[in-house]
Amino acid sequence: MSNGVQSNYMSDAAILAWVASQQETQYGQLRGAMDFETTRGEMLQDVAVIRDELSKAAKSTDGMPQLNEDVKAFIAKYDGIPEFKDLVDAVKDFADDTQSKAEQMDRLTERQEGWDALPVPGPGEEDTRPLRPTGPETFDNQEVGDWRESLSSLSDNASHNEQLAMIRINEIKSNIDHSADLASQLIKSSNDTTDTAIRNIV
Question: Does 4 map to a domain?
């Protein structure tokens, strides 16, 4: 029978089911946010490595092949991620130059050995050999300075966004804890109401 009064009663099972649904959504958001921040952290570390290698490339070409590999790996890994577009574009600015110099380094020993194998002109003979191959020139200091400055500025922005994201992650964690506390309070309130009703009947 109904006395015409609508009941807002929720069973403990219904409360727990509601909390589980809320937390499932929040845990999904938390996992996604934390995974992205892990990727952002890796990206910032990769940028720092490239910046250091650029500085060395202004003094010596010995590390050019490694710099080229790191540049290609960076673009392949982070290109297409909207949040990292500016940094990827900044790396692309010197990617072609890096690859060109690295290719010259890769073939240098072979070309020098080929030159060394050429016949040496005899006395009075004209030396028709081309100049002996040499390695690529180092990067220009000004260019490297500009590239490093661009990467530093964009990295600082990414680090700031990382700090904001961590605030958001903490908010999600707080919401998860709050939903659990709310469920506990609702169940306790429901049980208290039931106990009161039973006592009144008795």
Answer: no
